[in-house]
From TrEMBL:
<feature type="domain" description="GS catalytic">
    <location>
        <begin position="107"/>
        <end position="438"/>
    </location>
</feature>
<dbReference type="Pfam" id="PF03951">
    <property type="entry name" value="Gln-synt_N"/>
</dbReference>
<dbReference type="Pfam" id="PF00120">
    <property type="entry name" value="Gln-synt_C"/>
</dbReference>
<dbReference type="InterPro" id="IPR027303">
    <property type="entry name" value="Gln_synth_gly_rich_site"/>
</dbReference>
<protein>
    <submittedName>
        <fullName>Glutamine synthetase</fullName>
    </submittedName>
</protein>
<feature type="domain" description="GS beta-grasp">
    <location>
        <begin position="15"/>
        <end position="100"/>
    </location>
</feature>
<dbReference type="GO" id="GO:0004356">
    <property type="term" value="F:glutamine synthetase activity"/>
</dbReference>
<keyword id="KW-0067">ATP-binding</keyword>
<comment type="similarity">
    <text>Belongs to the glutamine synthetase family.</text>
</comment>
<keyword id="KW-0436">Ligase</keyword>
<dbReference type="InterPro" id="IPR008146">
    <property type="entry name" value="Gln_synth_cat_dom"/>
</dbReference>
<dbReference type="GO" id="GO:0006542">
    <property type="term" value="P:glutamine biosynthetic process"/>
</dbReference>
<dbReference type="InterPro" id="IPR014746">
    <property type="entry name" value="Gln_synth/guanido_kin_cat_dom"/>
</dbReference>
<dbReference type="InterPro" id="IPR036651">
    <property type="entry name" value="Gln_synt_N_sf"/>
</dbReference>
<dbReference type="InterPro" id="IPR008147">
    <property type="entry name" value="Gln_synt_N"/>
</dbReference>
<keyword id="KW-0460">Magnesium</keyword>
<keyword id="KW-0547">Nucleotide-binding</keyword>
Length: 438
């Protein structure tokens, strides 16, 4: 047992910890957990905790259902909303088979595998997510409604912004869990909010997105509200996205930094070209529900496979950087309903492929794509059905995720799409299947 595990066991013993949650995600990115007693933690580190994987979406069949959770000692976090006497801590876990091998559909394993490829080539990646969500009122019986908490708009303050105290509680809770929110504000839509995160290692960033969603749901419920990560909960209002900021370093130097003449670096250009080349194939993973496609094409959400400097109508923009070390790209396609482990793995692998192949970047499209003629620009998928079709059989997707995981995921998404097709009342079905769940 290494020193980190020993330190964790000492922390548990000295801090009145009574319950330990072992957390992981199904293939769709839904948070799952099992609770064990502190006395069981040494065994969990050594041999894992078994669970029925056949009951987890996208995992194992019933005849191969024994999988094991191994807590990642570096992810120890106290849950601040649980009692401070008899505390509850949580670990993210690796999912393994009976022989100790990583389980193929474990999102953390998939992302780690991609990061290993980058590291083997000498690259270190940083990711920062910008996460949007809505706060809605609940009815007298506690059920979510579509009445926004307020009628505030972008960057508004109280009394128009009635969400400031909830955002404050969310951010302070995250800080107690050693997660670093960088900023928060009211977004464009009524009841819409955003929390942005400081850049971090991609696996940590993905863990933080999962924790953030859990914290938002928990804090909102404690305040009598419903926190929604539906990409388009209100048809005529802005959708909620998850912009992903990416930078890449080698030998401690940001290789996305511009040259002395201000020209974009070849590495950045090829990385962007790689992401754009695979955007249509990975959309079913970065934008996994029908509402994801209703979000595209308005309110600063992209519609076309294009890039530009600062322009928020593009799929990728290059934000202004106050210094070379802050150079990054912002991918504006994903939304927070995605599995961040799979989404980050696919985005990083696509960019890395662009660098490996020294892909040429198409000309910048600096104009407003909401009003200008898009010409011959490739469009993103217009529906989940189209996204599934474009992902199906993609050798790139199967290489990053594994063929088995990609096919299981897409089969589950196709089944969702079939249920949507069969529903007589599409709006009611979407509310029941997504709004009250995401």
């Amino acid at each position: 047992m290494d020193s980190t595990m020993q330190a964790v066991l000492q922390f548990v013993e000295e801090n009145d910890v009574k319950f330990i949650r072992l957390a992981f995600c199904d293939v769709m990115g839904t948070l799952k957990n099992i609770a064990i007693m502190p006395s069981e933690l040494p065994r969990a580190f050594e041999t894992g905790v078994s669970f029925d994987a056949s009951s987890i979406l996208g995992f194992a069949p019933v005849d191969k259902s024994d999988l094991f959770l191994f807590p990642d000692a570096a992810t120890l976090s106290v849950l601040p909303w649980r009692p401070q006497t008899g505390r509850v801590v949580r670990f993210f876990c690796s999912v393994r088979t009976a022989d100790g091998s990583p389980y193929g559909a474990d999102g953390r394993h998939i992302l780690r595998r991609t990061l290993r490829r980058l590291a083997d080539a000498g690259y270190e990646c940083r990711v920062g997510a910008e996460c949007e969500f809505y706060l809605f009122e609940r009815d007298a019986e506690g059920r979510p409604t579509k009445r926004p908490q307020d009628n505030g708009g972008y960057f508004d303050v109280a009394p128009l912004d009635r969400g400031e105290n909830v955002r404050r509680e969310i951010c302070l809770t995250l800080e107690e869990m050693n997660i670093r929110p960088e900023s928060s504000h009211h977004e464009q839509g009524p009841g819409q909010n955003e929390v942005d995160f400081k850049h971090a290692a991609p696996l940590t960033a993905a863990d933080d997105v999962i924790t953030f969603k859990n914290v938002v749901k928990t804090v909102a419920a404690r305040n009598g509200l419903y926190g929604s990560f539906s990409p388009k909960p209100l048809a005529d209002k802005p959708g909620s996205g998850m912009h992903v900021n990416i930078s890449l370093a080698r030998g401690g130097r940001n290789i996305f930094a511009p040259g002395p003449d201000g020209a974009y670096s070849p590495a950045m250009r090829s990385f962007i070209a790689g992401v754009l080349a695979r955007a249509g194939e990975i959309c079913a993973f970065t934008n996994p529900v029908p509402g994801s496609y209703a979000r595209f094409g308005s309110f600063e959400a992209p519609r076309y496979v294009a890039w530009s400097h600062q322009n928020r109508s593009q799929l990728i923009r290059i934000p202004a950087a106050p210094a070379p070390e802050y150079a990054r790209i912002e991918v504006r396609m994903p939304d927070v309903s995605c599995n961040p482990y799979l989404a980050f793995a696919l985005l990083l692998a696509a960019g890395f492929e662009g660098m490996e192949r020294k892909m040429e970047l198409a000309e910048e499209t600096p104009y407003d794509l909401y009003t200008a003629n898009a010409g011959a620009l490739e469009a993103l998928p217009a529906s989940l059905e189209e996204a599934i079709a474009r992902a199906g059989g993609s050798a790139f997707v199967e290489k990053v995720l594994s063929a088995d995981t990609a096919r299981k995921y897409l089969a589950l998404k196709q089944a969702e799409q079939n249920r949507w097709f069969a529903a007589r009342d599409k709006e009611k079905y979407q509310d029941e299947a997504y709004f009250g769940v995401l």
